[in-house]
From TrEMBL:
It comes from Capronia epimyces CBS 606.96. One of its GO terms (molecular function) is monooxygenase activity. The lineage of its organism: Eukaryota, Fungi, Dikarya, Ascomycota, Pezizomycotina. This is FAD-binding domain-containing protein. Residues 6-338 form the FAD-binding domain. PANTHER family: FAD DEPENDENT OXIDOREDUCTASE DOMAIN-CONTAINING PROTEIN (PTHR46972:SF1), MONOOXYGENASE ASQM-RELATED (PTHR46972). GO terms for biological process: response to antibiotic. Gene3D superfamilies: FAD/NAD(P)-binding domain (3.50.50.60). Coiled coil: none annotated. Pfam families: FAD_binding_3. HAMAP family: TetX_monooxygenase. It comes from the Eukaryota. Keywords: FAD, Flavoprotein, Monooxygenase, Oxidoreductase.
Length: 390
């Protein structure tokens, strides 16, 4: 199917690249504008699990499922749940992952591999690198179309602009004044590299996948990727300015780790404390932001959003990438459906937005509940019960 729509996708994250691939499979052309200078410019972060009815479904329709299976790690699903004192409540490394259907078949894949899989599937020159969007505006010369103002120039006359530009989306600014709000939680991301040789006890402690500890006002999530790295996310429920006012010198990682441990995790079991100290290769404090649950915008012809740009949530529902890829699947269907008749596009986009508003709200509520559970003393028992179908 060919089309004469001029489509811009802003952002080459999972949402933007999935959308571009799905459109191209149906011969609908688009250009992806990405602020990174190149695919290698920035680490893409750790491992993510793709759900059967989420990211996997989008990859199936994108014709990339077999390759995803080859790159993914089903063993990475294994989860260990422990209490703050080290008591093991569940260890799927020992019991196997015998979960209810809704929680099963969620193989892990490294973000970098997912991005490369999607990039390799696109026609050459689909992604234009080093294009930082500053603002989007209605075209002055072509009524009904939009122009994109980048740091280094303007691209004019798009019939459809899709904001796939993540948490701090610039495209979103034309649809709503709403900005992300602080969720009440800050996470310190700590890395341990070459764990099989340099941090064997941490590797044994975490197992093949992830190891989570939840407690009142604090949480520790350790996760392995396929590059022999373990990321330890030490979360604390603290005010928005805590990163700057807590007195921890983040520029001196070893000191920061010691202070974090001493002030917030000192009464934890020895293996948990060791996990914080072992992960000493990189330290990144991350405030967790979210869009208000149920946020919507008034439809505007020629502009829409996918992924975090549309419904940013914290990481405590574990669904962000899956929703982002599902949005792209739904939007691609809407666009493909009316690629031969552009006049049908506004209605198709409105219907798409109704779907993602409802789905986004549903998962934002679950994620809110997840955040409460992750930072509560009962959270580990509750998660174990759910995973065991009790
Ligand atoms: C620490 C952490 C752990 C997580 N773990 C999980 C998990 O286990 N499972 C899960 O499902 N989700 C997880 N998430 C959430 C997940 O990362 C996001 O939901 C997902 O990446 C959203 O995809 P996206 O494509 O919408 O946005 P992004 O991945 O943010 O991609 C946006 C892209 O747009 C580009 N961009 C931004 N601004 C501009 C601009 N002005 N101009 C041009 N380009 C721009 C960015 O460079 C980026 O490439 C996690 C998030 C974090 C922070």
């Amino acid at each position: 199917m060919s089309n004469n729509l001029r489509i811009a996708v802003v952002g080459a994250g999972p949402a933007g690249l999935t959308l571009a691939r799905l459109l191209q499979v149906h011969s609908v052309a688009c250009t992806v504008f990405e602020l990174d200078e190149s695919p290698a410019r920035r680490g893409q972060g750790g491992s993510i699990d793709l759900h059967r009815n989420g990211g996997q479904q989008a990859l199936r329709e994108a014709g990339l499922f077999a390759e995803f299976r080859r790159l993914s790690r089903p063993e990475g699903e294994a989860l260990k749940l422990i209490k703050y004192d080290g008591t093991v409540v569940l260890d799927e490394n020992k019991t196997g992952t015998r979960r209810p259907e809704e929680f099963s078949d969620r193989p892990e894949i490294d973000r970098t591999k997912l991005r490369q899989l999607l990039l390799d599937s696109l026609s050459p020159d689909t992604v234009v690198w080093g294009k930082k969007l500053i603002t989007i505006a209605e075209s002055s010369s072509m009524p009904g179309k939009h122009d994109l103002h980048f740091k280094d120039g303007v691209e004019e006359g798009f019939d459809l602009v899709v904001g796939a530009d993540g948490a701090w989306s610039r495209v979103r600014n034309i649809l709503t004044d709403q900005r992300p709000v602080y969720s009440g939680v800050t996470v310190i991301e700590l890395w341990a590299l070459h764990v099989d040789t340099r941090h064997q006890s941490l590797a044994e402690f975490v197992g093949a996948g992830s190891c989570f500890m939840f407690d009142e006002g604090r949480a520790l999530q350790c996760q392995r990727d396929s590059e022999n790295t373990i990321r330890v996310y030490a979360g604390v429920r603290q005010p928005e300015d805590w990163v700057n006012t807590c007195g921890i010198d983040w520029s001196s990682p070893e000191e920061a780790q010691k202070t974090l441990l001493g002030q917030y995790f000192n009464d934890c079991g020895p293996a948990l404390k060791q996990a914080i100290m072992d992960a000493s290769d990189q330290l990144i404090p991350r405030q967790m932001w979210m869009l208000p649950v149920g946020m919507r915008w008034k439809p505007r012809e020629g502009v829409t959003l996918v992924g975090d740009a549309a419904h940013l949530m914290t990481i405590f529902g574990g669904v962000g990438v899956n929703l982002a890829m599902l949005d792209s699947l739904d939007l691609s269907r809407a666009v493909i459906d009316c690629a031969g008749d552009a006049s049908r596009l506004p209605d198709a986009i409105r219907r798409y937005e109704e779907v993602i508003f409802a789905r986004g709200e549903q998962y934002a509520r679950k994620t809110e509940k997840g955040l409460k559970g992750h930072f509560s003393a009962k959270g580990v028992d509750e998660m174990a019960r759910r995973l065991q179908g009790r």
